[in-house]
């Protein structure tokens, strides 16, 4: 499930999301609405994601995620991923090399506050 995370009002250019468990298309649709709305107000966005647990991802949700990412990839400049999952840390580092123009960093939950500061800096 995706859930929006509150960030200070002056950070409207940040989309902050918590992932906990299984991800379905309806979860992704809610986040995509927020992204589209913020893209109407900002040239570039930043993504902050806290992954508590990652369950099954439906094939449709994965397809929608990829489709949206390709459509807007040049409108993002930073992504912070907070997770204690070491496999995801490795994946984040690899993904950061695949997408030009986006600075991607992984943090542990003990580094949550530095991750929040980094994404808004």
Description:
This protein is an alpha/beta fold and 121 residues long. It has a single domain, classed as Transcription Regulator spoIIAA. Helix content is 42%, strand content 31%. It has helices spanning 25-39, 59-72, 86-98, 112-120, and strands at 2-4, 14-23, 45-57, 76-82, 103-107. It has a five-stranded mixed beta sheet with strand order 1-2-3-4-5, with helices on both faces. Helix 1 (25-39) runs parallel beside helix 2 (59-72). The radius of gyration is 13 Å and the shape is globular. The model has no long low-confidence stretch (mean pLDDT 84).
Number of domains: 1
Our count of helices gives 4
Mean pLDDT equals: 84
Largest beta-sheet characterization: 5 strands, mixed
Order of helices and strands: EEHEHEHEH
Distance between the termini: 28 Å
- Structural class, from helix and strand content? alpha/beta
The strands making up the biggest β-sheet line up spatially as 1-2-3-4-5
Supply Rg: 13 Å
Number of beta-strand segments? 5
Percent of residues in helical segments?
A: 40-55%
Approximately what portion of the residues adopt beta-strand conformation?
A: 25-35%
CATH architecture term: 2-Layer Sandwich
Poorly predicted tracts of residues? none
What is the CATH level 1 assignment? Answer: Alpha Beta
| Approximate shape | globular
**CATH topology heading:** Transcription Regulator spoIIAA
């Amino acid at each position: 499930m995706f859930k929006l995370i509150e960030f200070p009002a002056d950070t409207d250019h940040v989309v902050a999301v918590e992932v906990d468990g299984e991800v379905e298309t309806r979860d992704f649709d809610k986040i995509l609405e927020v992204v589209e709305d913020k893209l109407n107000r900002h040239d570039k966005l930043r993504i902050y994601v806290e992954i508590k647990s990652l369950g099954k991802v439906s094939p449709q949700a994965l397809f929608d995620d990829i489709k949206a990412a390709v459509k807007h990839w040049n409108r993002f400049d930073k992504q912070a991923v907070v997770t204690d999952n070491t496999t995801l840390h490795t994946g984040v580092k690899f993904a950061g090399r695949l997408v030009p123009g986006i600075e991607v960093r992984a943090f542990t939950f003990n580094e949550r506050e530095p991750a929040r500061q980094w994404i808004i800096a």
